[in-house]
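Practice problem: predict the structure.
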Amino acid sequence: HVSVAPREAKPGVEQQYSVRVPTEGQVATTSVYLEVPEGVTITDVPYPEGATHEVKQAGNRIVGITWTKEIPPKQRAEFV
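Answer:
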């Protein structure tokens, strides 16, 4: 169950979000895709340690982010 914190966005306020990805089964998680909701503007995607990321854009707007990292079973990773 992937979670995003904070859980709610405040209109007109710049916030930093963390995406927490646990591996709950017996097979490693290798990537996660975040679809950015309409009305949310992403200004920066930091490079996470030990992982890569790719952004999907529509014009100048980031509409999706794919993080790639092997997360072993029973462990988790956090992406900002």
